[in-house]
Write a structure and sequence with these properties.
The protein has about 120 residues and is mainly beta. Helix content is about 0%, strand content about 45%. The protein has one domain (about 10-100): Immunoglobulin-like (Sandwich), CATH 2.60.40.10. The protein has strands at about 10-20, 20-30, 40-45, 55-60, 65, 80-85, 90, 100.
Length: about 120
């Protein structure tokens, strides 16, 4: 099997779900690489610093992963992601780096007291 030489494009979406407790997640999707081999899995890596160093946060057999770890629950934090394609022959170079900034909660509007009618 040929070694994977992949150009992976990441698209980042930040979403807020409103369950019992507000939770944040980063949805990562990418295109399968083109080149000499077929990827059998992808290693997704994250860093809090642009350019790394990166830490593996998971492996996916497909072209998406949802990062809902405790790290992405920090409002206002920015994370940087890369993906590495893998097969039996080895690993590709990391994809382009993308970033996601976790949104902050919307401010609560002030509550006005009812007017006093005379």
């Amino acid at each position: 099997m040929k070694k994977v030489h992949a150009l992976l494009l990441l698209i980042i979406l930040c979403s807020i779900s409103s369950l019992a407790q507000a939770a944040h997640s980063v949805t990562l999707t990418w295109s399968a690489g083109t080149g000499g081999g077929v990827a059998t899995s992808y290693d997704i890596q994250r860093s809090a610093i642009k350019g790394g160093p990166y830490t593996s946060i998971g492996t996916s057999p497909g072209t998406s992963l949802v990062d809902s770890s405790s790290a992405v629950q920090v409002e206002g934090a920015t994370f940087f992601y890369v993906v590495i394609a893998k097969n039996a022959a080895g690993s590709s170079a990391p994809s382009n780096e993308v970033s996601a900034t976790i949104p902050t909660s919307a401010p609560v509007p002030p509550v006005l007291a009812p007017p006093v009618v005379k």
